[in-house]
Each structure stands twice: as structure tokens, then as C-alpha cells.
């Protein structure tokens, strides 16, 4: 297997990240590569927030995976800090390679390093393969995830 | 109806907030009022993070409800900022009073004011009354919520 590195995303990764977000049955309707402006603005907000970790998986200089890890302090569970994983995407060429597992394991390890006591994420009810994947990694589907689009 | 105000939590609200977190079938096992230290430390972290909004509902000087709103920037959905609602609790004396609706409506309005395009939350699968409550407020149970305890 060639060299894989999980590292913080840089602005030059944005086109590859957005391409992965768009290359998805649900993401295809939501993303647009035509205008990079809103993505650049969002990247700037992420970069200045110490509780945000947007990372990419880099294989031999190619951006082949991404996820966003958010660290959330809180009072509940005796003041437990938790983390939330969002926007997990694996390049089509890399699916089945174990890269998804490596990315989630990175996020779990980083959460532990930062003192989190809980890692959580939501997955669209239609993504049944993803549900099995997270259960294999020890996650429990204990909650319903509600969304309200504004 | 007496005067209700939704306002940022202050350190003096911590005992009342923790009491509400504990007065719950799931929370009872997770919280402990014996030692305030971890709650005070978590409160300090929340207070210094501009993307965290821990609020209480105050009725005539009594702390009768709480929730935590987190603002999360991100690249997906064309750089959409989203918000996450956590740790919603209503004092036992106030259940059925419409206070839950007022708190969630506050969170949705504040999310809109901050430019969020999505509000999300998770609810334990056992809380079927809460699920109906969120659906009545326009939320869609489109996701499964996965948790991993560290």
C-alpha cells in the first residue's frame, strides 16, 4: 500500500474536498463547483476555530478522503466534552480500501487525545452500508437524528 | 402566564441546570451533584467559545429550562453553517407548559440570525414523546444518530 497521511486540510484541498462531497447520491444536489466563494468563506471560518478540525487523507499527494471533527464542551454527563464527526467522504477510487476505517479511527483517536468522552455522528437513514460500517467500528445507533432546513 | 426570559446561562445557574439534567430517566445515571468541579470547568470552556450558547429559561427568577446551541461552520451544502441543539431539559413543574416549544423556537431563531441553513439534533430512540415533539416543530427524522462512548 502506498503512503497515506491524514493531515489538516489546506485551501488548495478545497476543490478535491468539494468534488468528493458532490460525488455522492445525496451530495450531488447540494454542491456546486461553479462558484468557490462560499466554500472559501466557510474554510476561513473553520481555520480560525480551534474546535474545528477539517482533515484530508492524502495518498502520495492526492486528496482521497475527508472528514470534519468538531469538539464540543458541555455540562451534561458530568461536564463531558464530546466530538461530532461530519462530512465523511472517500474518493470513489478508494472505496473498499479501508481508508474509511482509517479516517474514523483517526477521528476517534484525536477525540480521545483531546479528552472527549463521547464521539457522535449522524448518517442519513438511506445509507445502510454506512450504518453497518459504523456499527463494525463500535458505534451504537442509539439515537434518531432530526434536521430542520432553514 | 408569568414572565419568561431566555438568557445566557451564568455560573449561578449551574446547580439548577445539573438538577434538570439529572431529573431524567437517562440522565439520572450520568450526573452527580456531589462534586461541582467538572461542571464548573465545562462551563468555563463553554463561556470562552463564541460558537457555544448555553441558555436557560428563567421564569420570575427561577431557572426552569435549558439547552445548548452550537454553531458549526462547514464546507458541505455550499459552505453552509449549521447548528446543533444538545441537552434540552425542562423542569418537571413546567412540562406541558409550552416552554419546550419556546426554547426550541428560540434556538431556531438564533440559528437563523447567525446565518445557519440547517438545525440538527439527536434524540435517544427511547424518547418517543420527544420525537413527536420535534416533528410537530418541523424537524424531520431523516438520520440515525450513532454514539461511541470512550
TrEMBL record, chains A, B:
Domain N-acetyltransferase per the UniProt entry, residue ranges: 4-150
Entries under InterPro entries matching the protein: Acyl_CoA_acyltransferase, Bact_Acetyltransf, GNAT_dom
Gene3D superfamilies associated with the record: 3.40.630.30
Pfam families assigned: Acetyltransf_1
CDD domains hit by this protein: NAT_SF (cd04301)
Keywords: Acyltransferase, Transferase
Any one Gene Ontology molecular-function term assigned to this protein's record: acyltransferase activity, transferring groups other than amino-acyl groups
UniProt keyword Chloroplast, yes or no: no
Protein name as catalogued: Predicted N-acetyltransferase YhbS
Species of the source: Streptomyces wuyuanensis
Amino acid at each position: 500500500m502506498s503512503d497515506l497521511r491524514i493531515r489538516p486540510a489546506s485551501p488548495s484541498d478545497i476543490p478535491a474536498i468539494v468534488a468528493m462531497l458532490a460525488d455522492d447520491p445525496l451530495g450531488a444536489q447540494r454542491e456546486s463547483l461553479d462558484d468557490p466563494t462560499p466554500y472559501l468563506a466557510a474554510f476561513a471560518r473553520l481555520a480560525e476555530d480551534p474546535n474545528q478540525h477539517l482533515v484530508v487523507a492524502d495518498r502520495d499527494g492526492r486528496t482521497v478522503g475527508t472528514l470534519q471533527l468538531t469538539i464540543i464542551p458541555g455540562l451534561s454527563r458530568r461536564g463531558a466534552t464530546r466530538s461530532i464527526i461530519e462530512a465523511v467522504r472517500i474518493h470513489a477510487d478508494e472505496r473498499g480500501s479501508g481508508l474509511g476505517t482509517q479516517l474514523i479511527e483517526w477521528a476517534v483517536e484525536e477525540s480521545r487525545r483531546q479528552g472527549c468522552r463521547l464521539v457522535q455522528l449522524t448518517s442519513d437513514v438511506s445509507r445502510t452500508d454506512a450504518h453497518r460500517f459504523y456499527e463494525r467500528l463500535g458505534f451504537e445507533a442509539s439515537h434518531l437524528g432530526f434536521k430542520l432546513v432553514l
